[in-house]
Amino acid sequence: xxxxxxxxxxxxxAAPYYAVIFTSLRTDTDDGYGDxxxxxxxxxxxxxxxxxxxxxxxxxxxxITVSYWESEAAILAWKRQGEHSLARARGRAxxxxxxxxxxxxxxxxxxxxxxxxPA
Length: 119
Fold this sequence. Notes:
The protein is an alpha+beta fold. It contains three helices and four strands. It has a single domain (17-106), classed as Alpha-Beta Plaits (2-Layer Sandwich), CATH 3.30.70. Helices cover 29% and strands 31% of the residues.
């Protein structure tokens, strides 16, 4: 899972805020996927309204990435960002056999962490 340092949960503010849930199934083609995915996270971090990201991928190729945003306007601006648009096109052409994008408003959020362990 990737948050701020690659191993942490995203540190989001008090609700409400928005989540973009990207569920994908990878093809066998790698061809720069890892580098592009990493650069997209780095780029997202520079976007106004970005709050954080968490991501996981199974050995079967199924992955879920959840990015958190302050507003729907921030999400739309990220969708329209030029480098992100190019990466999405490359994903459709080479890296994904299928994907779904879901956008949700987070109304409540809570968690648990053992003392001394990061959430």
